[in-house]
Design goal:
single chain, about 80 residues, mainly alpha, Arc Repressor Mutant, subunit A, 3 helices, 2 strands, about 5% strand
Length: about 80
């Protein structure tokens, strides 16, 4: 994936090119900005609805971005883990 100045893992299906889409991170092989996923989910669409609206984005790509975001922002609650 192209990544100009971004620190995304190589396995993340995202590309960034300052010359395209105003440098917004997009799903690899598409011109669909990653923030479109979050904006659509925020507005009430589910993942299937999003994928219907953006057929160039695969379920695997969307799930990978969601999982990456989860890893970045969710702190595991160890209080519920067995000792």
């Amino acid at each position: 994936m192209m990544s100009f100045g971004q620190n995304y893992p190589a396995s993340l299906p995202v590309w960034v090119d300052p010359e395209r889409m105003n440098g917004s991170p997009c799903f690899a092989g598409t011109h669909c900005p990653v923030d479109a996923l979050f904006n659509n989910l925020k507005s009430g669409l589910n993942l299937d609805d999003f994928l219907d609206c953006f057929p160039d984005v695969t379920r695997e790509q969307a799930v990978a971005v969601l999982e990456y975001s989860k890893q970045q922002f969710v702190i595991p609650d160890t209080r519920c883990l067995p000792k």
